[in-house]
UniProtKB/TrEMBL annotation:
PANTHER family: DNA REPAIR PROTEIN RADC, UPF0758 PROTEIN YEES-RELATED. NCBIfam families: PRK00024.1, radc. Keywords: Hydrolase, Metal-binding, Metalloprotease, Protease, Zinc. Belongs to the UPF0758 family. GO terms for biological process: proteolysis. InterPro entries: MPN (IPR037518), RadC_JAB (IPR025657), RuvA_2-like (IPR010994), UPF0758 (IPR001405), UPF0758_CS (IPR020891), UPF0758_N (IPR046778). GO terms for molecular function: metal ion binding; metallopeptidase activity. It comes from the Bacteria. This is JAB domain-containing protein. The lineage of its organism: Bacteria, Pseudomonadati, Pseudomonadota, Betaproteobacteria, Burkholderiales. It comes from Ramlibacter humi. Residues 103-225 form the MPN domain.
Amino acid sequence: MTLLALPLDARPREKLLTRGPGALSDTELLALLLRTGMPGKDVYALAQELFTRFGGLAGLLLAAPDELARVKGLGGPAKRAELLAVLELARRAMGQQLRTRQGFDSPGTVKHFLQLHLARQPHEVFAVMFLDAQNRLIELETLFRGTLTQTSVYPREVVVRALHHEAASVVLAHNHPSGTVQPSRADEALTRTLQSALALVDIRVLDHVIVAPGDSLSMAERGLL
């Protein structure tokens, strides 16, 4: 079923234009973007399937292009490209909003920001948020890629970048593409090593956040710092 097959007052485009976007449900908004379903599955069912598959709107925002390509009904490059473009704009808008906050004042805010930037990475990366004295973000940098161990993350490089940004504190972060966010003993040892290295130049480690698709963990909240 296409949206044009619906009664006029049930079409999401007309509903949006006459009553405003707030009048539409998440499913209706996504259906408006998708426009058509597929044989045996109307556009609303396809929209709902996407939300179910990816765990709602937040999960859909973190969906990778190859994951969307595996959804039957999104195989066409034009439809998939439009959806990916809208999702990327939404991610960038959310990231920009978080960046312009007065400061990263809670682990929840930090985890949300890092989810947007790291959760979709197909391989492990190690990143650092460099913060000023008011916990405002100076820069988020990905410093290392690949399997992370204590020997593949170089404390000297982290210290050099922190001094370059004149950071007062940092938040360490890495992702687990496997899906688990439980810190390993190597994660804990690496955190202690970086704390000691940065303390020598009077820079604090506020947290070490581990992110995975749909989940995140703050080592500070767990009392591991």
